[in-house]
Amino acid sequence: MRIVAEIPVDPRCARVHEQGWQSWSPSTGYSLAQAPHRWVAPEHRIGNYRAESFPAGFWGEGLLAVDPGDGAPVTVVAAASPTEAVPSIKATYVDQRVVVYADGPVEVRVEAASVPRAFARWADDVVKALGLGAPRPAPTIWCSWYQYFTEVTESDVDRNLALLDALDLPVDVVQVDDGYQAEIGDWLAPSGRFASVRGVFERITGTGRRAGVWTAPFLVGRRSRVFAEHPEWLVRAGDGSFVSAGRNWNQPLYALDTTHPGAVEHLREVFTAFRSWGISFHKIDFVYAAALPGRRYEDVSPIEAYRRGVELIRSFIGDAYLLGCGAPQLPSIGLVDAMRVSPDISPEYEPGNGDVAQPSQRGAVLNGVSRAFQHGRFWVNDPDCLIARPEVERREEWAGHVSAYGGLRGSSDGLDRLDAWGLDTTRRVLSEPVPERFVES
Ligand code: 9PG
């Protein structure tokens, strides 16, 4: 790491704003006295953070800002080529100064503006440099995850499909989340709760709504057929072992090598099948896996491997709408229509183990606010779905957040679980016009 800035500050009022690596990584501002959010359980590190350890101080992935707190301008330190390389940026307080270090090329900008506006101005310049057009407006969605989780059944989807019509809710896309598939990696084979994968999507489109599907296209679970039959498609460490992509669903996870011709054909097979079934919305999740460091078939950087993987999917899905989740933020610029900018919402306000990268309203709100500047510039922001059923703690606050920071708006309650307030609020949040931007530059 080399020093890239030394900023005189008022230690009582100064704030450092960190931006994390991927959708679920904590992103927010801190006073110098605060301890930044870090993982609590080591098994959540790979799935939520990039750094292997955090030395004392502040740590942003490709983006960090310092507000000196004395009225002097804000300093933004940002990746010089955010779609090619994302340096880690560290900041520590020493003797009336914040010293900023980076391990790769960064741009240091001084802006007489609030931190959100300073970030927005940087984002405007990135958009201009890359020649990006305005993002496509998002459809409204109903998502199965936050009511049924991995236990979703075919009849859960059918029942909610019927209720959408009965209640006349303004939902464009019915998005089936995790649980329809046989295994992580085996996307075209049904789980025991579905007669087939194809059937449910054809029934959705048969009602006149659009069908959406969840995948974790770059993850391969230890129990999957893909793992058993094609270990050569996985990213490896220097010693030849499989690189870990974390642990979830009670099994170890590995990363698909997006540069391997066999893996490319596998992705083609999966996504062209989805396309032939009329699926026009894709939530691609846990995609950080394609950007893990390791040995690949072709010798490309992890970010290059990630971008190739997403570009491949894009090339297979026609003009379907593409939502990134668990996605490295800066490396995704220009690749997705919408982006999850937060960890998962949960009926509980506080995260179970104190780690705000884990499901909670507190963590989802922190990220949704701190990444508001991205909306309308890099993509449409997805702050995660509205959940409005009575058991949701502080549900009025969550609905207020989705209303204020929702670019993509979704509902994820069993519609028969909503009371009058929940139903009215769902209808309202899904019907509101979405602002073009949340932060002006
Ligand atoms: C499906 C879910 C939903 C949800 C996604 C994502 O750290 N973790 O182990 C971890 C697990 C799941 C998770 C996020 C983090 O949720 O955000 O909307 O699609 O997968 O499994």
Automatic annotation (TrEMBL):
Source organism superkingdom: Bacteria
SUPFAM superfamilies attached to this UniProt entry: (Trans)glycosidases
CDD domains named among the record's database cross-references: GH36 (cd14791)
Keywords: Glycosidase, Hydrolase
The name this protein goes by in its record: Alpha-galactosidase
Organism encoding this protein: Saccharothrix mutabilis subsp. mutabilis
